[in-house]
Amino acid sequence: MSIDSLNWKILKCLQQNARMTNAEIGRQVGISSPAVSERIKKMEDAGIIQHYHTTVSPFEAGYQLKALITIRAFMGMLKPFLEKVKTYDEVINCYRITGNENIVMEVVLKNQKHLEVFIDQLIVYGETKTQIVLSHVVKHNPVKPLK
Question: HTH asnC-type domain location, by residue (predicted)?
């Protein structure tokens, strides 16, 4: 499915606020609410729109640390880690990457002791590097049309 300029306008609205009503989107992009609904359904069916979700502030939920942890997996340990990482409650995002490391994870932790315990679980799979997140510089930037 090709994404025309009207669909990009709808996507822009949804990326700003996924709870925006079809009527409000229609007013902003200049089409009727049923037309918006039909276009959204087609984009969902095509896999362009994949999920709607709620973002929770880890700090307001009681976590004191957010960190990025990379792993350079030991020989034969990447596949077992790829299964194990799905079970860690601390991991909010995990990517398999190219370069010297194989994995980068975004994790939330209660405190420094929790970080230490978590890293101790990881080191059986490979060499880790940890960076503590101080603040977001760009957060949930929308996907925009290709130029």
Answer: 3-64
CATH of the domain at 123: 3.30.70.920
Q: What are the pLDDT digits (tens) for 106-133? A: 999 999 999 999 999 999 999 999 999 9
DSSP string, 61-125: TT--EEEEEEEEEPTT-HHHHHHHGGG-TTEEEEEE-SSS-SEEEEEEESSHHHHHHHHHHHTTT
Q: What is the pLDDT of residues 88-101, one digit of tens each?
A: 999 999 999 999 99
What is the C-alpha to C-alpha distance for residues 122 and 109, in angstroms, rounded to an integer? 14
66/40 same-domain check:
no
Amino acid at 118: F
User: Nearest-CA neighbor of 72 among 114, 119, 123?
Assistant: 123
pLDDT > 90? residue 141: no
Token pair belonging to 130: 């940890």
Nearest Cα neighbor of 68 from 142, 135, 8 is 135
What's the predicted TM-score (pTM) here? 0.85
